[in-house]
Every structure is written in structure tokens, then in C-alpha cells.
């Protein structure tokens, strides 16, 4: 994302580090390392019950400092990509306060904040509780319509920060990489249409829920473990038992076999996963495509797909 590039461009020198929970969104790694020479290093996330454990971050921070590496901050996507997990505000407040005490800043990316498809899930936007932090000025909030509205082409993002140096840098960089005035005008009109927003979100959440429930049902039938997502447009599945051996080379072999039957999943190695065998399955597609994909997965595993029913949406 352009805004993350701006942050890391401002806060380098090169080879500085941002910590992120693993697995993480692959483009985060590319945007920071390839363009601003700031490296994403991952902190292990418990995939049985994901949570932000300060002791794990503290251990990783100490490891890098002992090696003479400079950790500058944390990068946190909530809801999380690629698990679809929602981190509760209490955990985020504790982690942000720890980061401030440790001399770190935090980037909180809520790009999937409207894609909450679990009716029992509780999601609180950071901006609703930021004043409960000891040092809220150490946290940078970002959001973009690219995921919540499926509009990546607008190349537009919202950034909330109280850091004077970052604001100055962003103002200068905006002249190099400006937002299209046509995109600005479009987004203003879009976000001003309350009737459309209400209708759009209701339909989007309903369809995401239907697609996730469909995926979850068939993953259970196929005895494929997965992280129970509450939000976003994907699910992290566990295919470790289908590896020929426990290695990322074997993961790549499995990915190529899946591609051979017309299935494209994001492999764990592309998401900085610490264990091989995890894949991200995106379900934000047409219901016909999703059904076909599941049928291909049945076929790949040597199972009969004749019982796969069509997806029905709520009226």
C-alpha cells in the first residue's frame, strides 16, 4: 500500500525493522523492503487461538537488539490478513502501550473493517478507543476503500497521525504520488450516499457470510483444519498433512499440484509463515466460481463432489 511505503520511507534508515504477526500479508513485505528498504520480520501467531502476546513481541525485540538490529515499530492488520481473525481492543491497547514504552511506533491497518461477516463477532475500530492509550500519538491509523469497497484502483487511503515529522513527510510525498482528483470526487460522493452504503454493506456482509459458511462446511467434510475467520475475504487452511515432507520446498510442490487442477492458493512461504503447509483461500468471488473451486478441491483429494450444492443468498 502506498501509505505504508510513505511511513517506511520516512522512518528508515535502510535495514530497519517492522515486526508483524506471522503469517502476514505478502505485499506488506514487498512494499516495505523493495521500495523503502525497511524489513518486515515476523512474530509467531498461535493459529489455534490467535492473540497478541506481549511476551512474544518482547522476546523477538530483545533478539534483534542483541544482534544490533534496529526495530522501529510494529505493523498490525486488524481484521488480520491472512487469518480473518479480529484482535480485541484490549489486546491492541496493551500492545500499543508496550510498544510506546519500548520506543516503538505502531501502524494499525483496518482495511477490512467493514468486512465483518460473523454476526457474533465484536470489532471496534482503533479510532473509537485511541484515547485509552497511554501514548496515542505513537500509533498511525490507516484505512482504504480498496478492500471494503473492492476499489483498489482508486489508489486512495486515509491516514490518521499526530506525528509532526510524518505529516510533513506525507505532505511532501503527496506531490510525488498524488491522489487523482477524479478518485477523490468519486469517493466523497460514495461516502456521502448513506442509503447506498447501508444497502451495499448489508448485501456484502450477507454474501461474505454465505461464502464463508459454504467454505467452512466443505473444509470440515474434507477434514481440512482452518482458522475460524470472523472477517475479511479469505480463510487460512492447514494442508500440512498433504505435504510429502515438512518443508517449504514440499509446500511449493503441493502448490504447483493444486495449480495443475486449476486451484490457486497463496502459500505460507509467500506470507512469511513460520511453518510450511498453510495456505490462504480467498472466497470473494462469484458463487459459481467458488462452487467450482471447491469441486476441484474434492477432485484433487480424490473425493466425490456430487454432493456440493449451490450457494443460496439471503433475500
How many extended strands?
Answer: 10
Output the CATH topology of the largest domain.
Aspartate Aminotransferase, domain 2
Mean pLDDT: 92
Strand order of the largest sheet: 2-1-3-4-5-6
Sequence stretches where pLDDT stays below 50 over 5 or more residues: 1-6
Going by CATH, the architecture of the largest domain would be 3-Layer(aba) Sandwich
The top level CATH class name of the largest domain:
Alpha Beta
- Radius of gyration, in angstroms, nearest whole number: 20 Å
- Structure class: alpha/beta
Summed up, the domain count is: 2
* Major β-sheet annotation: 6 strands, mixed
The termini sit apart by: 35 Å
Tell me roughly what share of residues is in helical segments.
40-55%
Series of H and E elements: HEHEHEHEEHEHHHEEHEEH
| Dominant shape | globular
Number of helices: 10
Keywords: Pyridoxal phosphate
GO molecular function, one term: transaminase activity
Protein name: Aminotransferase class I/classII large domain-containing protein
Organism: Diploscapter pachys
Amino acid at each position: 500500500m502506498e501509505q505504508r511505503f510513505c511511513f517506511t520511507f520516512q522512518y528508515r534508515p535502510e535495514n530497519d525493522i517492522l515486526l508483524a504477526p506471522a503469517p502476514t500479508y505478502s505485499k506488506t513485505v514487498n512494499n516495505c523492503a523493495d521500495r523503502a528498504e525497511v524489513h518486515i520480520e515476523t512474530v509467531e501467531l498461535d493459529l489455534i487461538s490467535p492473540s497478541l502476546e506481549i511476551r512474544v513481541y518482547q522476546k523477538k525485540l530483545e533478539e534483534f537488539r542483541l544482534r544490533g538490529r534496529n526495530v522501529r515499530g510494529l505493523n498490525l492488520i486488524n481484521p488480520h490478513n491472512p487469518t480473518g481473525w479480529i484482535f480485541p481492543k484490549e489486546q491492541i491497547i496493551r500492545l500499543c502501550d508496550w510498544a510506546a514504552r519500548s520506543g516503538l511506533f505502531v501502524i494499525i491497518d483496518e482495511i477490512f473493517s467493514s468486512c465483518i461477516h460473523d454476526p457474533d463477532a465484536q470489532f471496534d475500530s482503533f479510532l473509537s478507543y485511541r484515547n485509552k492509550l497511554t501514548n496515542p500519538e505513537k500509533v498511525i491509523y490507516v484505512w482504504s476503500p480498496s478492500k471494503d469497497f473492492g476499489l483498489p484502483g482508486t489508489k486512495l487511503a486515509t491516514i490518521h497521525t499526530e506525528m509532526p515529522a510524518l505529516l510533513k513527510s506525507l505532505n511532501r510525498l503527496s506531490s510525488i504520488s498524488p491522489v487523482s482528483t477524479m478518485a477523490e470526487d468519486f469517493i466523497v460522493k460514495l461516502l456521502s450516499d448513506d442509503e447506498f452504503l447501508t444497502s451495499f454493506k448489508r448485501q456484502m456482509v450477507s454474501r461474505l457470510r454465505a461464502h464463508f459458511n459454504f467454505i467452512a462446511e466443505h473444509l470440515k467434510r474434507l477434514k481440512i483444519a482452518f482458522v475460524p475467520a470472523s472477517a475479511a475475504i479469505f480463510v487460512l487452511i492447514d494442508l500440512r498433512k498433504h505435504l510429502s515432507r515438512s518443508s517449504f520446498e514440499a509446500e511449493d510442490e503441493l502448490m504447483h499440484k493444486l495449480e495443475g487442477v486449476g486451484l490457486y492458493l497463496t502459500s505460507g512461504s509467500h506470507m512469511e509463515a513460520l511453518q510450511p503447509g498453510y495456505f490462504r483461500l480467498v472466497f470473494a468471488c462469484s458463487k459459481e466460481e467458488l462452487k467450482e473451486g471447491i469441486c476441484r478441491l474434492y477432485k484433487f483429494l480424490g473425493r466425490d463432489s456430487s454432493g456440493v450444492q449451490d450457494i443460496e443468498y439471503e433475500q
